[in-house]
Design a protein that fits this description.
Sig_transdc_His_kin-like_C; 11 helices; histidine kinase; nucleotide-binding; 58% helix; alpha+beta; 5-stranded mixed sheet; 3 domains; 460 residues
Length: 460
């Protein structure tokens, strides 16, 4: 109960209402004290008028008038003359005087609190204006004990009434919060629990219904999140099925390529100079295809395998990539160039980095070929103080805005019609495996440039 939203709201409401009543309590008690003193002045004035009407009043009647007024003596000032009208013996001397003629609110509250906290019986003098202009001044002496007891009684009744008001108010607010807030929130929680039981089921996605704007915003956000999650789970399932199919195809393709490797020895024995020159490249291509199939099978079991680090010459690797792409250029007017120092050695996995560079160059070639216009592709390699940097630049049409939103996500960053969007996702994963980063430097009408940065510290 106390840990629930409605329970805590009930407690806070009660506390705040009581606090408000306490703030009202002091002015209320001060006003009660003022009214009490004014009433004593009025009674004393009535008693004095009885004496003025008949000078021959017996001592017993005078005492009765004073007791009825609740005072010890009465002094009236009329016609600039001060007259002791009624008097009786006082138990103690006058302690202090209170002038109600020019009393301020602060002064009345201060005097009321002082009277409440001081239990000592005292005699005080009270000064005020006579009622109905029956003189210019009236003053009486009286005891503080009856006044204090009356103030305590009034204060207790005020506090009890405040408590009742607080409980009623808190109860009404409790039921209002239960109806307007707690019940809708529990409904949202129930929707979340129902959705969590089967997140792939789109029928379990929440339908916003709240009338409260803040809760409606929460339901809208929850609906959007659940919709995206359901779509992601469905896509994950499709990718898992696709991964199983790719693994099967890769298994069979690896066997076929392994058989092809057995025939490369005979090709190398050919007397044809062109065949002998191309035979090593064919062997390398088949070896890389076998390695790709093996890595694909490994990917089906886990992530991309960790890179096997060796120190190799980057220029030779890029040259192999560009030679393979030149064979694919065909009749297209596309030139490929490299700007890599001949002695630039980097530490990494040659097979994985070959795939990374090859994917970037192939994407650039296909983009330029799709325009039917001539173009250029260049690969640049530089060494900085802490990293090896490989940049692939082309003069193609640039990437569309839609492709940039999911550039490195599999099956979502495809640009070419019929493309899968796997190329850049594979490159990004391979570069991350080397502790590096893949970044799109620019992409506009003048072309596209990607940068692979491999930190030296992460590979040593």
């Amino acid at each position: 109960m106390l840990t629930s939203l409605s329970g805590r709201f009930l407690i806070l409401t009660t506390v705040f209402v009581m606090l408000a009543e306490v703030l009202i309590f002091v002015p209320s008690v001060a006003r009660f004290r003022e009214d009490y003193l004014l009433a004593r002045l009025e009674r004393a004035q009535i008693a004095s008028l009885a004496l003025l009407a008949d000078d021959m009043i017996s001592p017993d009647l005078e005492e009765e008038l004073l007791q009825n007024a609740g005072v010890f003596n009465v002094v009236l000032r009329r016609d600039e003359a001060r007259q002791l009208v009624l008097s009786a013996p006082m138990p103690t001397p006058v302690y202090t005087s209170f002038d109600l003629r020019d009393a301020t609110a602060i002064g009345l509250m201060r005097d009321a609190l002082a009277c409440l906290v001081d239990p000592t019986p005292r005699v005080i003098r009270v000064i005020g204006y006579p009622f109905r202009q029956a003189g210019s001044l009236i003053e009486v002496t009286m005891e503080t004990e009856p006044l204090r007891m009356a103030m305590i009684d009034y204060g207790v009744r005020i506090l009890l009434l405040s408590a009742v008001i607080s409980i009623i108010t808190a109860g009404l607010l409790f039921f209002a919060v239960q109806r307007l807030l707690v019940k809708p929130i529990k409904g949202v929680v129930a929707h979340m629990q129902n959705y969590a039981a089967a997140p792939e089921d789109a029928r379990r996605i929440i339908t916003p219904q709240a009338s409260i704007s803040e809760l409606r915003e929460a339901e809208d956000a929850l609906q959007s999140m659940q919709t995206q999650l359901t779509q992601a789970l469905k896509q994950k399932e499709r990718l898992a099925q696709l991964g199983g199919a790719v693994a099967k195809v890769s298994h069979d393709l690896r066997n076929i390529l392994t058989s092809a490797q057995l025939f490369t020895d005979r090709i190398e024995m050919s007397e044809d100079p062109a065949v002998r020159r191309l035979a090593p490249k064919l062997v390398n291509s088949i070896s890389r295809a076998v390695s790709l199939c093996e890595n694909t099978l490994a990917f089906g079991r886990a992530e991309e395998p960790a890179p096997k680090l060796t120190l190799f010459n980057l220029a030779g690797l890029v040259s192999d990539v560009l030679d393979g792409e030149r064979l694919a250029v065909g009749d297209d007017d596309i030139s490929l160039s490299e700007d890599i120092p001949a002695t630039m050695m980097i530490r990494g996995d040659p097979e994985q980095l070959y795939r990374a560079v090859s994917n970037l160059v192939r994407n650039a070639r296909q983009a330029i070929a799709g325009t039917g216009q001539p173009g250029e592709i260049s690969v640049q390699g530089v060494t900085t103080d802490d990293a090896w940097v490989i940049r692939v630049h082309d003069t193609g049409p640039g990437l569309p805005a839609k492709a940039r939103e999911h550039l490195f996500q599999a099956f979502q960053g495809g640009v070419r019609k019929g493309g899968t969007g796997l190329g850049l996702a594979i490159v990004a994963e391979l570069v991350r495996g080397h502790g590096g980063t893949l970044k799109l430097i620019r992409s506009d009408e003048g072309g596209t440039e990607f940068e692979m940065r491999l930190p030296m510290s992460a590979l040593r």
